[in-house]
Amino acid sequence: MEDERLDAVILGASGFTGKYVVRYFLAQLDRDGGQRINIGIAGRSRSKVAEALRWAAAPSLPPANIPIIEADVTSPPSLAALCRRTKLVLNCVGPYRLYGEPVVSACVEGGVDYLDITGEPGFMEKMEAAYHQRAEETGSLVISACGYDSIPAELGVIFHSKQWKPPSVPHSVDSYLALESDKRIVGNIGTFQSAVLGVANVHDLQKLRRSRPRRAKPQIPGPPARKAKLIEHISSIGLWALKLPSSDAIVVRRTQTFLAEDPQGLPGVNENSDFAEKRKNFWSEVKPLHYGVYIGYKSLLSVAGTIFTGLNVLLLGSFGWGRSLLLKYPEIFTLGLFKKTGPTEEEVKSATFKMTFLGHGYSDESCLLQQKTKPDMEIVTRISGPEVGYVTTPITLVQCALILIDQRHSLPKGGVFPPGIVFGPTDLQERLEKNGISFEVLSKRTIS
C-alpha cells in the first residue's frame, strides 16, 4: 500500500559517493515530534551494500530497520520492483551517460520521484527531451544536478541576482571556484570518467540540441556577454581564473529558460495560497543575467596543471584507445588530481571550497534608456562550504530529498527539471546554511 512505501531509497549505496550519502542521511532520519524518515539502500550486491551501511553507521551499529534492496541498472525488472517500494530514488550510480537512463525510465513509469548528482549535460538534456512529457503525466518529478553540480551554482546565481534591488539591474555574473586544503585535492575515477565520456559524445549533444524546438530566451538588458578569456587575473578577488566548460552554466541557463516561459515559477501540485504567493514574490526578485564559470587559483603553476589535464582529456578523449589510456592511468594524465581509489578520509575532511560570484550591472535601469551600456555597478557574493564531492554533495542531495519528502505538495506534479526552478522558492538555502554552507554578500560598489 502507498503508506507502506519507503520515503526514499539510495541507489548505488556501496559506491564511493553513495556511501557518503548514506552516512549523511543516517544523521537526518529522526525528526521533531518523534517522527522518523523511512529509507532503504540499494545496489547490485547485497553484501557490498551491507558493508557500506556498516561503514556509514560507524562507530555505532547500523540501524536494523533499514532494508537492503538488490537492484541492478542493467535489470529493468529489479528497478521496477525497487520503484514499487519507494516514493523517491536518490541515484548515485554513474557515469549517468552509461547507467542513468534505465533508472529515470523506471521512476517515470512508476510515478516515483528521482534525484541524482550528475554533472553531465548530455544526460540531463536527453532525459528532458525523452521523459518530460511522460513524467508530467505520471507525476514523477525528475531533477538532476542536485550535488555540488549544480546546487551551489543555481542557488548562488539566484542569491546574487536578488541583491540587485530596484532601480539597479544585473547584467552578468561570473563564478570563481577556489578549492582549498592543507592536503592534496583528489577526485575519484567516476568523476573523471564522466568528463572523458562527455568529450567523446559532444557531437551527440550538439545533434540533440539541433533537433529540439527553440524555447524562450531570458531577456537580459544591455550588451551581449563579454568574450571570455581562457586565463586572466582577477585582481578584485586575488585569483588567476581559468575558463571552464562547466555543466553549471548549462544548468543555470535551463532554469532561466523555464523562468522565461513561466515568470512566476512552477505551481505546486497542491500548494496552498501562502506558498503560491511566496513563490510569485520570490521569482519577481530574480533577474536574468549572463553567467560564466571559472576555476580560480592563487598561482599560475596550478593553472598550468589544470590545462595539462584538460588538454589530455580533449586530445585523447575523442578516440577509443585514448579513453582507455586516460581511464587506465588517471593519476598520470591528471598529475594526481584523480585517482582510482579516490581521496582518503583525511583528504576529504581537510578540503573546503569558496565560490565567489563577481557581478556587474547598472545602478539604475534608466541608464540603458540613455544608451549608457557600460555597467557602472559591481556586487560580489560568495558561497563557501566543506569538501565538494563527498561532504557538500551529500548535504545538497539529501536536503533536496528532505524537501521532496516534507513539501511535495508545494512542488510541481511532475516533469524533468533543473534544480533551481524547483527548489528556488523553498527553504533549501536556509537548510544548507544550517549544515555548514554559507551565503554572504562581500561588497557592493559603483565602478567607472
Automatic annotation (TrEMBL):
Cross-referenced Pfam families: Sacchrp_dh_NADP
Limits of the Saccharopine dehydrogenase NADP binding domain: 9-143
Gene Ontology terms: cellular component: lipid droplet; mitochondrion; plasma membrane
GO biological process: glycolipid biosynthetic process
Family, similarity comment: Belongs to the saccharopine dehydrogenase family.
PANTHER family: SACCHAROPINE DEHYDROGENASE-LIKE OXIDOREDUCTASE
Protein name: Saccharopine dehydrogenase NADP binding domain-containing protein
Organism of origin: Picea sitchensis
